[in-house]
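Hello Y.,

Per our agreement to keep a running log of every chain we model this quarter, I'm adding this entry. I've kept the format consistent with earlier entries: sequence first, then predicted structure.
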Amino acid sequence: MTAPRLSAGLRPFWPALWLALAWTLAGAAAGWAKPEPLPASATMGEATGRTWAYPPAPPAVLPGGQATPRPASLTPRQAEEKAGTRRSAQDMDHRPPRPPKPTRSGVIRLAAVGDIMLGAAQAENEGVFSEVKPFLADRRVVFGNLEGPLTDRGTPTKDPSAGPYHLFRSSPAQGGLLKDAGFNILSLANNHINDYGPAGRAQTVSVLESLGISHAGGPGEVAVLKVNKTRLAFIALAPNAGCQNLHDLAGAEALVRAEAAKPDTLVVVSFHGGGEGAAYMRRVGPRPEFFLGENRGNLPVLAHTLIDAGAALVLGHGPHVPRGLELYKGRLIAWSLGNFATLSGLSLQGPTSLAPLLLVDLAPDGVPRRVKVVSFKQEPRLGPRLDPENRAALIMAELSRGDMPEEWLADLGGGGQRLRTAGTGWTGK
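Predicted structure for the entry above:
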């Protein structure tokens, strides 16, 4: 039988997915062996006066594999039909949403993206979110990970003698672009927020507070937004100094339990964790992920423990590529939202250029009523642009199989398309 012809739009991405599948099977056969530690190195970002290929070569043996399928839960369609709010097929495409009708249901419309690093203020950056803003118009909550400080102060904190190093920062003026786009909550828990020391981070906090943008990520820090009658408590984690430590599971669990116990409160947790680059655009496995000699977290243990403690939604970022979704005990987990608006310092080739926008409608009890991914693709120095090939949504849906009800996956990207394996690799159908 002749293998199906590879779709031109997806051709740049199938090698990474095919290789990831092979690593998954190899990892399972090897019993999820822990990889040999790689030499210690600085974190990812923009090197000053240096050139560094991105991403670095992955370890020879990677942890990963098939997550244990979860019991079937109420699908979005069933939930919407039960609530009498089922939307028509035309609302499931990639057109901007219609203005919301008044509702007494208390549904919380949330949008979430991955890494944002806008760099120096330039005239060409002013339209960076121009194609995104229509999709955020009906969102009461817009979340992203601020990958580096908004500062023109401070001194670099990385040691050149340690090898290739990367520094991120954006002009404080770029904060206005975030406000104008609709962002009202940002994570400051990541491996670049302290690239310019305490002065850089302090200026970032000052800029965000002057704009009315909430933030979380410091030890013990909780950001609160009020939507309808619901209190949303945001907690952000990362395995880095100056952040609520991702490896301090007991501490994170205690924070979640304390907030979840408060009246009319939903807890949203974000984490900056997992390996980086195309090799990690795969299913999340049952072991810690290591990258550049650093333990980037046992993500299933983290997310499941925090949901058991009372978290309603868990949002992941850090790998710079999209990963799948999981429905665990009726609560949604996004394992990685990839890059979204990284205008300098990161390669935007292949999977790292994909920029998913996750749209979630949460009921007041935290149950997701509707989940959708709008696919964007980053263009160098221009930011996210709508992707007519719908690649981010298709890839995320494929990596979610077994962890989400099939009907959810059919609705995820709006077209019922499916990415599937063929004799020569991955293709669209």
